[in-house]
Model the fold of this input.
Amino acid sequence: MEQQVATEKVKRGLAQMLKGGVIMDVVTPEHAKIAEDAGAVAVMALERVPADIRADGGVARMSDPELIIKIMETVSIPVMAKVRIGHFVEAQILESLGVDYIDESEVLTPADEEHHINKHDFKIPFVCGCRNLGEALRRIGEGAAMIRTKGEAGTGDVVEAVRHARTVMGEIRRLQNMPEEELMSFAKEIGAPYNLVKETRELGRLPVVNFAAGGIATPADAGLMMQLGVDGVFVGSGIFKSGDPAKRAKAIVKATTHYNDPAILAEVSRNLGEPMVGRQVTDIPESELIASRGW
Amino acid sequence: MNIGVLALQGDFHEHTKVLQSIGVSSRLVKLPRDLTGLDGLIIPGGESTTIGKLAEDYDLIEPLRQFGQLHAIWGTCAGAIFLSKDVKRDQPLLRLMDIEVQRNAFGRQVDSFEIDLQAPFLEYGESQPYHAVFIRAPMIKSVYGKAEILLKLPDGAIVAAKQGRLLATSFHPELTEDDRFHRYFVELTQS
Done:
């Protein structure tokens, strides 16, 4: 048999290699090096972290390829980059750069208010956000090889990530307790492809790796999401918007590994300096919420 | 028979699932005390820099080296890197196997691939090819000392090596349904 590339197996497989790890947002090659040295399993290369995107307002787009290339040249770990929802040309550009994963992300301003990218068209695997099981399975149906909760990016408030993780897990538990004949109606109700609903029920989990994202700012937040059953965590603004990024990055990496050992969590949480300035999600007007982007 | 799976980061659950399916009990290893009483150890796929740093921070390097003097260890992908003597980069290594490994030797994710290999040392290996999955995979650049070559790609790249009861594979048997490599390792553990 000849060598096969860009198969579903290798696309989903890279996400499996990231399990139990922390993916960090970085805006410069120097940040990327700090992240790699702290033990990040991958970096997300972008021009502004979500907290700044939120503060600056305006249209948020794919980052300058020059920045992404420089970050790819700096670190040996996988490099991810974001495209706007539905913006398949930004995705073609990132594919030509050879990034390792593309995040079709609600953190950027959506380019299409009805359709996501047909991710099966690409050799590079995609990660997408979700708030519930239906959204997760629609994205997987479109070709996403990895899922993350949306949370509420750039807030430092973990409440939405918790809500989204609990919602997905709760719906999977409900699905597993359902008699077979109810599956089709359930698929219709949540707007998900029937075959993926069936597969999820058989596996007792999403068919792809599922990380937490959106509002994780402390080692305890990472531990909380891991104990809730996610496979790993993304930390966006939480690291480089804090007082001592290198120290906090290392602490969150350790917390993600030793998530069920409170003594280690206590040890790594000591003297971390100032966390990022948080913004309570309930104080944010609905029009400024990011997680509701995506369909 | 109890096999440990190093669980600092990576696809360790994929390994424990295969072990369970062939009736072998396993234990996750995160701290030195978790090594007590194990008959062998698997170091999974993941990011070798992350695994190495966490091993260093939690004082696992020496205990793992000592474990490898007495017992079987198998490293898949990142695990193979971690077992090697040299990767031409500054990162923590166990330096147990006489192999030099090049990280990301086949390119970036877009170059990740699957291929059938002839592996006659496996059960039914003479007649059934072994389907191997390579993800941002390392290549074994050279094998010296007591290490021996186990598998090569058609173009000659070394992708598996063995040294006594130490085993290194560039690819991920834990990502396929074929459990022959895990059975091979369990036999090695008992040899």
About this structure: The two ends of chain B are 12 Å apart (CA to CA). The first helix of chain B runs from residue 12 to 21. Chain B has a mean pLDDT of 97.
